[in-house]
Structures are given as C-alpha cells and as structure tokens.
Amino acid sequence: MFDKKRTHNTPHKICTRDNASSDTLVYDIRQSRYLNITGRCTLRCAFCPKHNGSKQVHEYQLDLSHQPKSEEIIPLLGEVSNFEEYVFCGYGEPTLNLPTLLSVAKEIKRLGGRVRVNTDGLGNLVHRRNILPELAECVDSLSISLNADNEAAYNQHCRPKLANSYAAVNQFIALAPHYIDQVQVSAIEGLEGVDIDLCREQVTAHDCEFKLRVLGVIG
Q1: Of 205, 90, 204, 189, whose CA–CA distance to 147 is shortest?
Q2: How far is residue 17's CA from residue 99's CA, in Å, rounded to a whole number?
C-alpha cells in the first residue's frame, strides 16, 4: 500500500507481520510518516478505540511498552523527501512526551521535512505554561481535537482527567494561530449533544480551519 522507495531502507521498528510484537514507533499512512511517541493521554474519550478493546490503526498495533526518547525515534525517520509530512500521532497525546516531540521535530526541520502535531489542545493546561512558542520553533501545523460545542458534551464524550479542560482547549485554539501558521480544529459528527455547526462557528471565529470527522473513522 506504500511507495516502494519508502520500504527499501525501512527501519526495523516499523510494524510488519514479522515484528508485530515489538513497539510500533513509526507507521505510514498515505504519503505521511506517523510518529507514535506516547500511550498516555489527558482524555479518556468514550469513542476512542483504545477504550473499546483496540489499539490498532489500519494494520498497525500502536500499544507501547514505554515512553520512547528522541534517540529511538530519529533513526526511524527515513528519507524526509519521501514523505509529505511527519505527524506526531498515536493513541496518546504527543505533548505529554514534550521533550521527545521537540527534539525529533527539530531534527525533521533540520533535514528539510514538514511537521504536524495532532493534539487534544491541553498541553498548556498540563505543563502549566504556554508551550506554543516552543512548538512554533519546529512545528508547521497543528490538528486540534475540539469534539464538542459545549462543556457538558465535551465532558460526556471526552472524559477529561483534568478540571477545566474544555476552557483550556478553547484557549489553546484561540492562541494557536498566533504561533503556528496552519491550525486545523476538528469535531466529530455523530456524538450525542454536539452541534457541528456551532463547532464550526467557534473554530472559524479564531481564524482556524474546521475539519469535520466522522464517528468510527480512524486514520
């Protein structure tokens, strides 16, 4: 399913049928290489497959036995010209492994690649500071999951571990375009009590791009 020029030098920790028992630290979807740097998350989303018995995306098992460091990920980057972008995304929140994220992203930029971070937008709340200036040094785009137009629906479906998470993600969305050129914010069609049109209005009011996702469609 992937371009052959990607696979001739494919590192051994990319998941294949032969090494499926090892941690999948990088995986490929379409023209992008995805970086799986943590299994930890600030949310316990009811719709997330990992809370429903699966940690698989496409043919890849994304369960991690440890929190990988940058020296484990960097050798697996491959040739940056073979990929449209590198995406920090797994079944955890990438900003919870911020040192690895920043170190690897800086190396990708040094090599001439593009970097996207898929995030729940709670990095500032977790780290108790604005991490966007740090991300701006090495991240080209953000994909932020909003998922609800109101706090009650957000708490129902996303089940945050930290208080005031809905306010925090909205503050992050408001700040993000001041630091990152491309900011996309998503909501999921099919969640009870969520008004997609109101989500879109909230997102575009902050000069971000709105992305509609569909419940049950991953990757």
Answers
A1: 189
A2: 31
pTM of the predicted model, to two decimals? 0.86
Q: Which residue type does 39 have?
A: G
What lies within 8 Å, CB to CB, of 201 at 6+ separation is: none
pLDDT digits (tens, 9 = 90+) for 146-183: 999 999 999 999 999 999 999 999 999 999 999 999 99
Is residue 139 classed exposed, middle or buried when 0-12, 13-18 and 19+ CB atoms within 10 A define those classes? Answer: buried
Q: In what order do the strands lie in the sheet with 26-29?
A: 26-29, 32-35, 85-88, 115-119, 141-145, 182-189, 209-214
- Phi and psi angles of residue 147, each rounded to the nearest 5 degrees, phi first: 75, -15
**What pLDDT, in 10s, does the model give residues 7-44?**
333 333 444 334 334 899 999 999 999 999 999 999 99
For 139, the token pair is: 């991240």
